[in-house]
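Protocol step 4 of 5: obtain the predicted structure for the target chain.
Materials: sequence only (see below). No template structures provided, no constraints applied. The aim of this step is simply to have a reference model before the mutagenesis design in step 5. Sequence pasted as it appears in the construct record:
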Amino acid sequence: MSRFTLQCAVLVAATFFLGSEALAQGLSKGPFKRLVIRSATIIDGTGAPPQFPIDIVVEDGRIVEVKLVGDDFGKIDAERRPKAGDFELDAKGLYVMPGFVDAHIHINSEKNAGLPATFSYYLWLAHGITSVLDAGSGNGLEWTVADRDKSARHEIMAPRIFAYVRPGMSFDKAVTTPEIAREWVRAVAKIGADGLKLGAHRPAIMAALIDEAHKQKIGTTAHLGQDGVSRMNIVDAARLGLDSQQHWYGLPEAMLRDHTIPNWRTNHNQNNEQDRFSDAGQFWGQAADPGSPRWEAVMDELLKLKLIMVPTTVAYEFLRDLMRVKQAEWHDVYSSPGMLSHWIPNPGNHGSLYFFWRTFDEAGWANNFTKWHRFLNEFKNRGGRVAAGSDSGTAYNLYGFGYIRELELLQHAGFHPLEVIRAATLMGAETLGTADKMGTIEVGKIADFAITDENPLENLKVLYGTGALRYDPATGKVGRVGGVKWTIKDGIVYDAKGLLKEVARMVDQAKRKVSTNNDSKH
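Step 4 output (structure tokens):
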């Protein structure tokens, strides 16, 4: 039995409990024996167009009925409606999607954010994100597994957590041989890891890590670091059975035109992040052109090997437009003082690398995005799977908000909005290996939903917690519309906007504390 199956068993069998603080704040309702969502417009996650009016029935956290209850123009036929529930949501005029999957996150560290993990949990839930892949368990595997299990038991308000771990973590020796690699995989699987977040390891070690992970029935994903990608690019890793790729590393390097390694400057220092990302801004320009034999060969093999891509393009947007990401409208209210301080250029902080970021560097990354987006769109069009992940936490990439920006960037790449929602839902579930249980609005699946009062297919910006600006010709005024209204996880209803208000309160309190501490120093 897989660990996720065990979580589902907990969902059905456990007596649910939400902490008294959450209940006192009125941020959640449920669980319910029978929850009915009435008159919804559903975007089901499969790529199908919207349908309405639909009644959705949830019993004990599972979808048991998805029923059309009206005619072509939405007129309700009372005779067709499912019987009443112990709790009902009126979703007339609302858009109901499967809960979103963020396929690359790092739960915030209190050391960096200055706030507990609740800060990131609330921001994710407030943006309709009900499941997350923690790519590296930065707070430690044991800590992450503990919070994963608390979330599964509904003792904390948090998305469903999948704990992925880096080689060597929670182990008393370095992973230096295939034998040790297998030993480590067995050890972390026993602790409770859901998967491995690998680097560009030596071929023999990479093969052992992936093979043993599959034997232990846990997933594999990889950030193929540039210090090892010359011996383990994305094609090499996919041939060994890697399940998914994080970011873009190893992809342009697999189809370089003139060399077998990127054209690093001779005075490059890999340990200097500005050097690393400045030079990386030239990599796609060194790669084969679209439609060329090399481009086609790499595309064809990755499709054949069924690799899933989690591009996290939002995590690199600061490299092509630093001013834009620094001045995003949500930072004033929702970014904690600790995070804002962490993002100031600092050689000790990962991602805070813009020591003297140049127009030249941004131009390189703008060109990178053009070719990278072209590859992702073609990969998707030819049957490849692309999932949405944000890698939030660094470089002005805020939890929740960064994920919605990632959805926008997929549309920039050429994805139809329905394909974007599919990347955020079904493709995310496939990345986690749980598509049989979640990711679409279908009978038998877990009742995870993101619900908004504006059409995200018309404008993905309505999914931001801050909503989207819209001019009203009737009043002559500009107002904000949208934002997720309710997030439902396992049939429990969360007040998404209430969660955002709680985050704003937490951030304001942290700012006051910083101000008080600064005043006391003078």
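Step 4 remarks: The first helix runs from residue 3 to 13. The radius of gyration is 23 Å.
Proceed to step 5.
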